[in-house]
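SEQUENCE-TO-STRUCTURE ENTRY
===========================

Backbone structure tokens: a row of integers, each naming the local backbone shape at its residue.

Task: work out the structure tokens from the sequence, keeping to the layout shown below.
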Amino acid sequence: MDKALTRKSQLDCGIRRKIASWLRLKKTAHRQRACSHFFEPNPFRSFTSRFSQPTAISGLIVIFVVVVLFGWKFPLLGYVVPVVMAAGIGFGVFRGRYVCGNLCPRGAFLGTVLPLLSRNRPIPAVLFRLPFRWTVFALLMGFMALRLWRGPLTIAHVGIIFWQMCALTSALAVALALIRGPRSWCAMCPMGTAQRALGGGKSVPRIDESLCKKCALCEAACPLNLPLVQPAQDKSLDDCMQCGKCAAACPAKAIK
């Protein structure tokens, strides 16, 4: 009888120890998840990951369409343009062209709607050349500064100027998308050029050479046809928009 009680007592103690150990492990895992929210290596990733969802992309497209179609009538819509520009500059310091691939309303429209209509040809190399891109940047920024200087600095007038810039460049972007590739404009976009200058090459995809099969499916999936596998003249990963399409297309999961 005493032996049976002793055996039962030992069994109960063993169960209690296992339960206590399981609770400690669960508490430790919860603490690690809580800490990782604040101390993960890339703090922007958790904050902006929600914008990659289809509903958010649809929202960006709606913003673009509403601004282009109705900005002439409601000038306040034009202020979406400087907001996106400020976001590009702010994120550009830390993440390069992240805004181009994830938060730009026009970029979402070009990358989602225009592939259905585009001829899907390679982007001309001249659009990647920095001298050409900085010339486009200077011309567009100079035109906007001249319009601001000549007109009254009222809220409505400034909003109209921003809308005009958006409508003009969007018309050019759509024309390039129809003739060449959907995101041809993104290769020469003035704000994309500025983001590249501020933080180009940061948070770009890295290829595990031990897994890579050199199939180049990643390059085919890239909206800018950037050279992930083979080097290419006038093109650089400094222009990577961090959209993640290359990693999704890689059958070997070699892109991190």
The radius of gyration is 26 Å. The chain has twelve helices and no strands.
